[in-house]
Design a protein that fits this description.
alpha+beta, Rossmann fold, D-amino Acid Aminotransferase, Chain A, domain 1, 6-stranded mixed β-sheet, 5-stranded antiparallel β-sheet
């Protein structure tokens, strides 16, 4: 357990399609830490990439119009005196806020692709969740697929979908996904390659790149969370339910988000982020399938150098499992999955903070940069001649 005098900043929001869900996750985490008597700072990352200090006990409605009233503008400063620095001081140079650990609740986009991790490293701030490398691998669906293939883990074929591309090597129908993105945002199901290529110009979420896979309507989803501190541990396995599945299996009434895949509405339209989505938990699966999912999840965690808590998503039928993706900063920090064994949300957060304190994400090394090369370089003008 981290010391009681640690100051914890909870970062949430960000210039990402998952901004609103991130706000919910951040406010949940901040409220839990406050209830445990922790010293908490709220760090809101706006849709336009500005940082603000906000009330960590605020409600979600305060962020409906963006930056809430009373928010204090901040800048994230790199270097020896780096950190989150107030920008409105009239008394000369401002000092960075006294922050021991940042709990990163920024889903998707630059909050989960290594960008904010790199900024925090340069600012000398400890933070929870993946490192730059772990976040980058998790967000890049093509790189992740290559890692899964190299580890000889079971997965559906996944290829780059580029303009003017040729045959991908497998038949349709297809599912087209943003190469960099999460939460099913921007995902299209198409019948043929011609339509898939047409979506590249029509779907704004595919502008940075796209991948294509076989669409298998016979498969359903299974998810499991993995955490790395104080040791590798696995959660219960869930079967998240699409609106149709929820109606058939649980007797739910009409739900938002019905579609051919597990969509954004299925996951998040319920008021509490992923914590309120319909699911079977634990999933009603055979012991053999549960063992296969757990074994594959451990191997994925090893390959991705897991740090923090992640959710690993699978596609399965009655006999086979396929690794789909890893979410390195999952919705609600996957708190709802820890039911067997039970891990309270406060304990989950304490362990994330403790890991960040005990194992900082990055320490930069300058050994060898002693001026030898510069002294022997001679004239730059001469080298350009």
């Amino acid at each position: 357990m981290p010391p009681s005098n640690v100051t914890i900043a909870v970062a949430f929001g960000g210039p990402s399609p998952e901004h609103d869900v991130s706000v919910l996750t951040g406010l949940q985490a901040a409220r839990e830490l406050i209830s445990a008597g922790r010293s908490v700072i709220g760090l809101y990352w706006s849709k336009t990439a500005g940082w603000f200090r906000v009330d960590p006990a605020a409600e979600a409605a305060a962020f409906l119009d963006g930056v809430p009233r009373g928010a204090e503008p901040l800048r994230l400063q790199a270097g020896e005196d780096g950190g989150f620095v107030p920008t409105g001081s009239r008394l000369g140079r401002s000092r960075a806020l006294g922050i021991d650990v940042v709990v990163n609740c920024c889903h998707g986009g630059p909050g989960e692709d290594g960008s904010v991790q790199g900024m925090l490293d340069l600012a000398g701030l400890r933070y929870t969740g993946p490192t730059v490398a772990g976040a980058s691998i998790g967000m890049d669906k093509l790189a992740f697929a290559g890692m899964v293939a190299a580890a000889e883990l079971p997965a559906l074929p996944r290829k780059l979908l580029a303009p003017g591309g040729t045959d991908v090597g497998f038949g349709g129908p297809y599912i087209v996904k943003p190469r960099f993105g999460g939460s099913s945002i921007g995902v299209d199901v198409v019948a043929d390659l011609e339509t898939a290529h047409a979506r590249l110009g029509a779907n704004p979420h595919l502008r940075r790149g796209a991948v294509i896979e076989p669409y298998r309507p016979d498969l359903h989803d299974l998810n499991i969370a993995v955490r790395s501190w104080p040791e590798i541990a696995l959660s219960s396995i869930e079967r998240p339910l699409r609106a149709r599945d929820a109606t058939e299996l649980l007797g739910y009434g009409e739900l938002l988000g019905y579609g051919e895949i597990l969509g954004y509405g299925d996951k998040y339209v319920g008021g509490e982020g992923m914590a309120s989505a319909p699911r079977q938990l634990p999933a009603d699966i055979t012991a053999a399938m549960a063992d296969a999912v757990r074994s594959a999840a451990r191997r994925v965690a090893d390959q991705c150098a897991l740090r923090g808590v992640a959710r690993i998503d699978f596609l399965v039928d009655d006999t086979s499992i396929y690794v789909n993706e890893i979410n390195t900063i999952p919705g609600s920090l996957a708190r709802y999955l820890w039911v067997e064994p039970v891990v309270a949300f406060g304990r989950l957060l304490d362990d994330l903070v403790d890991e960040a304190l005990q194992q900082p994400a990055a320490r930069y090394e300058v050994t060898g940069a002693d001026g030898t090369v510069l002294r022997s370089a001679g004239s730059i003008a001469g080298k350009l001649a």
